[in-house]
Write a structure and sequence with these properties.
5 strands; elongated; 2 domains; Oxidized Rhodanese, domain 1
Length: about 160
């Protein structure tokens, strides 16, 4: 029994060392804080939450939300959720001008980007939150999931 226990400890130790070695670059990036923008602490950002395609589609269909696309102007022009505002994060990293969002603060906002690993929607949602808005939803599937699902897209010139 003692031998089996030592072998288990050895396997766990070797697995941990190999896992750390294989993912060393990710661990280093995490320690430097590169992934902090991708996390939302509920106590720091109340009112921001992630939603899936179904809720996004429901809000769109009922016209109950302002849709905000955080992608670049070129990506937005290539196709976006109809009626969405384009507020590219790259142009607004230092903060948003309150005049960009002339809506009551109780209005619902749905912020999206490309989807998948895209983080610009999270960062933009934080900026909108900083303006005093408290009903902000992040569509995690983004324009990619919207498009693949066959939902309408609007093109800009």
């Amino acid at each position: 029994m003692k031998k089996i226990f030592r072998e288990i400890v050895f396997i766990v130790l070797v697995s941990s060392v190999l896992g750390a070695a294989v993912n060393f670059s990710l661990i280093r990036r995490f320690v430097r804080g590169e992934f902090k923008q991708g996390f939302l602490a509920p106590e720091e950002f109340p009112g921001i939450r992630f939603i899936a395609l179904q809720e996004t589609e429901d809000l769109f269909g009922r016209g109950q939300a302002v849709f905000v696309d955080s992608r670049s102007r070129d990506e937005f022009s290539a196709g976006h959720i109809p009626g969405a505002l384009n507020i590219p994060l790259e142009e607004n990293k230092s903060g948003l001008n309150g005049g960009l969002l002339p809506y009551p603060q109780d209005r619902t906002f749905v912020v999206y980007c490309q989807g998948g690993g895209c983080q610009t929607s999270i960062a933009l949602a934080k900026l909108i939150h900083d303006l005093g808005f408290r009903d902000i939803r992040i569509f995690s599937g983004g324009s990619a999931e919207w498009s693949v699902s066959g939902l309408p897209l609007e093109l800009s010139r």
